[in-house]
Write a structure and sequence with these properties.
globular; five-stranded parallel β-sheet; single chain; alpha/beta
C-alpha cells in the first residue's frame, strides 16, 4: 500500500491542476488494464487472487473470495483481511483507503466510496478523501452505498440499498437513505 500518497492526500483538498492529482491518475490509468483483464472471461479463485495481488500490491489470503466483476478506481489503497466474501459488481472507490477486516460479507452491487468532489463550483473537479473501514464480521447488503469517512463496526449489518452517511455501531442493523439504526442484532450464540 502506498502510505506515502495516502499521507499526502489526507485531510486536504486535491486540486485538478496539482501534481498530486496527476500522480493519482497515472496510477489509476496503469491499474485500469489489469482490472479490465481480471473482469474479462472466466478466472478461478486463485487467478482472481493473483490479479488482486498485482492490482493492490499486497498478498491476498486464500480464503478471500471476490466474485467477478469487481471494480476499483485506484486499488492501491485497499486492505483485505481474511475469509472475506465480496459478491459480484461491487465498486471500491478507494483513493482515501478502504480497510476490510476478517470475515466480512459484501453483497452484489454494493459501493464503498472514499472520494468526494469539492463543494466550490470553481474547484468541483478537485477531490477530498476520507477512509472507509468495514470491521470484523460485518455484512454489507446488496446495493448498499458506504460514503467517505464511514466505519461499519463489528458484526453490524447494512441493509440492502441503504446509503450509509454516518458510522454504524457494532451489533446493529441499519437501513434506509440515509441509513438509520433499526435494531440490535439478535445473537443466539456467541462466536
Amino acid at each position: 500500500m502506498d502510505y506515502s500518497l495516502r499521507t499526502r492526500i489526507a485531510n486536504q483538498p486535491i486540486y485538478r491542476d496539482s501534481e498530486l492529482f496527476k500522480e493519482i491518475h497515472l496510477v489509476k490509468g496503469n491499474n485500469e488494464r489489469l482490472v479490465m483483464e481480471m473482469n474479462t472471461g472466466y478466472h478461478d479463485a486463485a487467478e482472481v487472487r493473483a490479479y488482486l495481488k498485482c492490482i493492490t500490491d499486497q498478498e491476498i489470503d486464500e480464503p478471500v473470495t471476490v466474485s467477478l466483476p469487481f471494480y476499483t478506481d485506484y486499488a492501491k489503497h485497499i486492505t483485505f483481511g481474511k475469509e472475506i466474501f465480496i459478491n459480484n459488481n461491487v465498486l471500491f472507490v478507494d483513493l482515501g483507503g478502504i480497510t476490510i477486516d476478517d470475515h466480512v460479507l459484501i453483497g452484489p452491487r454494493a459501493s464503498l466510496i472514499t472520494v468526494n468532489h469539492l463543494e466550490n463550483p470553481a474547484d468541483r473537479r478537485g477531490l477530498f478523501v476520507k477512509p472507509v473501514h468495514i470491521k470484523q464480521n460485518a455484512w454489507i447488503g446488496a446495493g448498499a452505498t458506504i460514503l467517505p469517512g464511514v466505519t461499519v463496526d463489528e458484526n453490524a449489518i447494512v441493509a440492502a440499498n441503504a446509503t450509509v452517511t454516518k458510522d454504524v455501531p457494532a451489533n446493529m442493523i441499519v437501513a434506509g437513505t440515509p441509513a438509520k439504526v433499526i435494531r440490535q442484532i439478535k445473537a443466539e450464540k456467541e462466536f
